Fold this protein.
Amino acid sequence: MRIRATVAAVSGALAFSALAVPAAQADDIRPSSADHGFTALTSAKTSKATKAPKIKITKATVNGGKPIVLGTSAKKKVSFSVTASDPSGIGGAAAFIWVGKNMNSGFGFGPDEKGFSCKAANATTTTCKGTITANPKELLNAHATTWKVGVVAVNMEGEELQRDSVAKVKLQRLSKLTANASPEPVKKGKTITVTGKLTRANWETVKYQGYGKQSVKLQFKKKGAKTYKNIKTIKSSANGSLKTTVKATVDGHWRYSFAGTASTPAVVSAADYLDVK
């Protein structure tokens, strides 16, 4: 997907404030020939080379600072908020996210054109909000890591400032977890087997694949109780499968719990109720 030029969002804010800025002052984000439709980001240049703008980016967040978790195919629209200030006032500001060694070889997603709004706190400071759409079909699994949050802001004099790294946000591969306790019902004191599987989104195959060699906790909640207790910790097999045995003593719910990793969020399976006779 071609990243929408950041200027599209900035222009929307400028239109809102009844100020027109020439397109030549825009942040320039061009398509690249990279695989999966990624785009290279090229740093914008200040429109007035002889006079650096006094714009200050005071705050920038994407998705409220929480990780962006993506499945195999569904696009996700996440919010951004940018606060900037300038003696002349702020005409508009927008965020974009990217990953890579530098802006020339990095890949990312720019702000959506619709749903963009700005609100002035006073004559010099304004907060702009909007959304960024992330598409997992354009990602490699290696991009499940920490991304940089960049910002472009334009003051009321038409001067532009771009900061390539103002904050950070994680992108993670959605995880799934199952659990099944058997046989059921079971006689008191007999051994039961709890199976399951830990999987996560593979952005390159557009399928869920087993997440192997991960620590997963088996948990139990006695019938009528409010909380689960950790029974044991096991490792998922190479294909993500889980299997362990325990003694059944009372009725209750069995489940697996995965704490997550840097690239994959925590997940808890649905509980499986076991009737002990």
